[in-house]
Every structure is written in C-alpha cells, then in structure tokens.
Amino acid sequence: MNTPPELHLAGLHYQLSEHFIFNVMNTLRVLIRKDPQEATGMLNTFSEYLRFALHKTKSFTNTVEKELEGISLFLRLQEIRFKKKIVLKSNLPPEIAYKNIPAF
Known about the structure:
This protein is mostly helical. Helices cover 68% and strands 6% of the residues. The protein is built from 5 helices and 2 strands; from the N terminus they run αααβααβ. A two-stranded antiparallel ribbon has the order 1-2. Helix 2 runs antiparallel to helix 3 and helix 3 packs antiparallel against helix 4.
C-alpha cells in the first residue's frame, strides 16, 4: 500500500506526541531515584514502543496482532506511570490475527 509521506509523519506524530514523550520522561526521572529497577523496565518498554511506532513510518498497515502488541506496550507504560493495573483482554479469533489493517 503506497501512502504519502505526510500521512506517515502525521500518524507518527499522533502516536509520539510531545505530551506523551514528556510524561514518560518525567516518570523515568522520578523512578531513577526511587526505583531504578522499575525505571529500567519502563525504559525497556518505552524503547519497544518507540520501535513499534517508528516501524509505522515504513508501513502504514499492520496486522491486528501487531497492533494489539503496540497497545499492550502503551498500556504497560501507563500502568507504570499511574501505578494502576490495566488489563487488556483480547478474544482474537486466529483467522483475524494476521489480517492487515490500517496502523493506529
């Protein structure tokens, strides 16, 4: 699927808004002092999420399964930030998991 570069950049900007990045960085700043092990875990999750989001600059579609993985990474970052357990339940039929959809 050919997508204009402007749409790729708009999608990336939506996923990696300044607000989101600054919130993650501020949480990391606090965790580095209070709980270095948790800070390391959050940094690893953030790194995985960045890889996921930046991949979308090359392909504007993704499988349903990969999109759920990205959502899971995002929610993990929110769990660390807000100290709340967030449960993502998915009842994904196997025949749908590998279908291509527009990347969110």
